[in-house]
Every structure is written in structure tokens, then in C-alpha cells.
Amino acid sequence: xxxxxxxxxxxxxxxxxxxxxxxxxxxxxxxxxxxxxxxxxxxxxxxxxxxxxxxxxxxxxxxxxxxxxxxxxxxxxxxxxxxxxxxxxxxxxxxxxxxxxxxxxxxxxxxxxxxxxxxxxxxxxxxxxxxxxxxxxxxxxxxxxxxxxxxxxxxxxxxxxxxxxxxxxxxxxxxxxxxxxxxxxxxxxxxxxxxxxxxxxxxxxxxxxxxxxxxxxxxxxxxxxxxxxxxxxxxxxxxxxxxxxxxxxxxxxxxxxxxxxxxxxxxxxxxxxxxxxxxxxxxxxxxxxxxxxxxxxxxxxxxxxxxxxxxxxxxxxxxxxxxxxxxxxxxxxxxxxxxxxxxxxxxxxxxxxxxxxxxxxxxxxxxxxxxxxxxxxxxxxxxxxxxxxxxxxxxxxxxxxxxxxxxxxxxxxxxxxxxxxxxxxxxxxxxxxxxxxxxxxxxxxxxxxxxxxxxxxx
Length: 458
Fold this sequence. Notes:
458 residues, mainly alpha, NCS2 family permease, membrane, transmembrane
């Protein structure tokens, strides 16, 4: 095993790799609570919950998808990188595909499976480089930043820090609960909003102090404080058998064999968005983490890039079958790298930790909107940092990026933001006399996304 994972070449050992693997798991563990919460619609009114799979099944799917993806990355890709259902992709799945586009969650899972299958083909055929070159850098960064703002907005909304307002659309929620004229439900909402703010402050302090598992620890501290003040229920037990996968396992198959369900404009947009976000998120994360670990080749590329990207794609396909949104590489893997992880054995340890986590599902009873909100907001901040990479001094680059970023949270749709940016970008270039600078693929996407808007208006 030492020889397979090249311990001597990488200057590492079992102890260091095990510590690094556990560190990566702790940095990623928040997804075990956040992803089921996002996909099950736990923050939605009761009449909408019927559209979603059971919370427990999504937890099991999340843990298994993370374990499968991480083990594949460790064994095949031999990189110290963990995988799990991606933040942003789960938000797109729930709030855009299911709630806005009214696509059944089973059909949405079929879209995830198709997009990951295409990703696998692109990874194995070497088309990846051509596609990366086709999409402008500014739009890539804008998509990531826009998703970050969208996720943060969801966190603020779920916590009640931002609420609906008839006059201004949104406003600051109730943060004072000592007003005697307030209704009991308003007092409870105010207390939960304050709990979320407390959790956010704790998480920010931990991360600013370079605590690798700061998001996870922040959620635990928030939940404990919530239990002390009666805002979070105590778990009835700690260990149990994993929840059944029956409500979600194989649900995508009923649509995969139905051409009328797959070959529609809406489903084309769904598949393209899943593919686009996962493709560039995975590529960027793999390069970033490998660079920090000093694993990049002399030409700046990944070692075994085909196997690494194929591991990502296969994990996404497995996750869709199990019942969760797209699985992708996690930037939190840098925590394990910082702890000394250098080989795929780090990822193997992380994958085993996700398997062990299957038996602690009762602890999810402490997950409330106030507990998950800080994690969503912080992840949003980290993703929004890509705004700095946009060429703001060049209007034909800045304006499409700005629309992409702005429209995602304001329209409550990741797909709308991407579509707007991909329509405006070639138009701006043509108007400025730079039509030849636009890759032919961008013109194809222009018509695809234009059809998407026309379809929505109908």
C-alpha cells in the first residue's frame, strides 16, 4: 500500500495521512446535515414537502455518495481530495429545478445522471481542454460568485434574518423579541434569527483563527446553544442503523428511459447547468488543492487527470442513483493538505469516515434553519471571492459577469443568471467588433439560452 500511494516519493507516512484524512472529513462533515436539509425542503411550508424525498434517505444518499466519490478519488486518482454533493448544485437542484421550473425531483435526478455521464465521456476523451478554452474566464468566475451570493441569500432567508416585504420585496427580519406586542411566532422567529447570527459570528471567528473544521464546529456550537435556550430539540439517540434509501434509490430511472421527459428545452438547460457548474468547479478545485499539496506536474497539469475527473463523474452518477444532487470535489480538502496529506490514502481515510457517519443519523434532529444558515452564508462568502477575478475595467467582460452574479439571487434562479450572462456576452463582443474572439460554442449556447427564456415566457 505504501508503494501504491507513493509514500516515500511524497515524503509522507500512515500517521500523517490518517490525521489528514480525518481533518478533511471534519472540514466537510457539515454537508451531511446541510445537503439533506436543502434537498428535502425542510425549510419549506408543509404543503411543499410532499414534493421531496424523505430527509433520512437523502442523508444516507449523501453519506454514501461522499464515501464512494472520495474512495474513488483516493484509489483511482490517488489525490488527497474529498468529494461530496456540491453546495450550489444542491441549491440549483432544489430552488431552481424543482421549485421554479416545477420539475419532479426524480426527473431532476435523471438530469444529474445525464450530466455526469457526459462529464465522464468528456473526461475520458480529452475534450475537457477544448471546453475549458471555449468559456470565457470572466463568466466562469461570475457563475461561481453568483452561486455564492445565492447560497448566502438562502441562508439569510432560512434563518429569518432576511424576510419578505410587500413594499421593498425583502427586508431585515425581526431581531428583537422583547416587544410585548409581538406574536409568539414572531418572538420565536426573532430568537432563531439571533441564534443564526451567533452561529455566524462563532464560525467567522473560528475560520479567521485558521481552524480547519470551523464550519462544522460552528454548527455544533450553534446547535448546543440552541438546545440550552430551547430552540433546538435534544436528539432522542446518537447511534442507529442508517435510514433506508428506499424513497430515493433508483428514482431517476423512471425518467432516464423516457425521451419525452429528457429531450425538452427545460431539461437541456438543467443538464447543461449541472454539467457546466460541476465541470469547472471540479477542475478548479482539483487544480487548486493539488497545487497546494505540490502535486502538479511541471506543465501545471494534474497527475492522472483523466482518472481524477472520471472519479468525479462516476461519483456524480452514483449519487444520482442513490438520490442526491451532483457530487463534486471539495475545496475543504485543503484542510487535510494543510495537515500533511499528500497521497490518495488521505482520501481513503476520509471516505471511511463518511461510511462510519452513516450510523449517526439521529444527530440530524438538531439541524434547524438557524443551525445551517451560518454554513450557507460562509460558503457563499468563499465562493463570492471569485468576483475579484472579473475584468471590471472592460465593460464587455464586466457587464455579462455582473448580470450573471446579480440575477442569480434576485431571480432566485442559478439557471437564469447563467443564461443571461451567456446571452449578453456574445452580443457585447459583436457590438464592440470582437466577434472573432468569441468561441463558436458560445454562439451555440447563445441560441440555447435564448430558447430557454422564450420557453419560460410561454
